[in-house]
Amino acid sequence: MRREFNMIAVWSSDRLGRSLKHLVEVLEIIRETGTGLYIHTQSVDTTTPAGRAMFGMLGIFSEFEREMIVARVNAGLARARDAIERDGHFISKAGKKHKRFGRPNADPKKLEKARQELANGTGVLKTAKLVGLGTGTVQRLKEADEPPQRLNRAGSGARHPRSGEPPPTTATRPAASPTTACWCR
User: Fold this and answer.
1) Predicted local confidence at residue 183, as pLDDT
2) Could you say which residues of the chain have pLDDT below 50?
3) Residue 55 CA: distances (Å) to CA of 16, 52, 169
4) Distance from the Cα of residue 69 to its chain's centroid
5) What confidence score (pLDDT) does residue 68 get?
6) What is the DSSP string of the chain?
7) Is the dihedral of CA 15, 17, 20, 26 positive or negative?
8) Which residues pair with 9 in a beta bridge?
9) Is the backbone of residue 90 left (phi > 0), alpha (psi -120 to 50) or beta?
10) Looking only at Cα atoms, what is the longest distance across the chain?
11) For residue 156, what is the DSSP state?
12) Which of 3, 69, 11 is nearest to 37 (CA)?
């Protein structure tokens, strides 16, 4: 059996939507169902005209606050980029010196241990778990340590995917294209 609600209670208006447009859409959907909305932190009840007006103003201020936060973050990133270009590093609020953005590199000791495990034949997942690295990092190590394979070149050891035959030699290549390796006969 379907239950009907008279009122939906939320903690804050910023939990309802990301922009004023989205908040208005949510309020319209709620109103169409005949349900009211109560916002606890602002004590707004949208079943009254004053509550609907206050809801609209809160939406405007919430969107403004969000845009101000984005602007401050972008200004901080620009300041840090300028410091890196000028001084070669920037100092965070915690007092740490950083030479670049992003996550720090993996510990070189862990990388070397992972290389040893991979050389011993341990799989990627097990190596990552043993050493304490991510599987993507271990996979990149494995691919970097393997010699690059040359495909579709005569004499490179490449084999046909299904038959396992080596590529055709110059004598069996079609006369029209002497530089192309052809797997079909």
Assistant:
1) 47
2) 1, 155, 173, 178, 180, 182-185
3) 11, 5, 78
4) 21
5) 92
6) -----SEEEES-GGGT-SSHHHHHHHHHHHHHTT-EEEETTTTEETTSHHHHHHHHHHHHHHHHHHHHHHHHHHHHHHHHHHHHHHHS-EE-TTS-EESSSSSPPPPHHHHHHHHHHHHTT--HHHHHHHHT--HHHHHHHHHHHSPPPP-S-TTTT---TTT-PPPP-GGGS-TT-TT------
7) negative
8) 38
9) beta
10) 90
11) T
12) 11
Residue with tokens 């939906």: 8
User: Pick from 42, 43, 37, 34: which is nearest to 24 by CA?
Assistant: 37
Q: Which structure tokens are listed for 149?
A: 């394979």
Q: Quickly count: other Cβ atoms within 10 Å of residue 142's Cβ.
A: 16
Residue 112, both tokens: 């070397």
Strands (E), the chain: 7-10, 36-39, 44-45, 90-91, 97-98
- The amino acid occupying position 59 is G
One-character DSSP codes across 11-28: S-GGGT-SSHHHHHHHHH
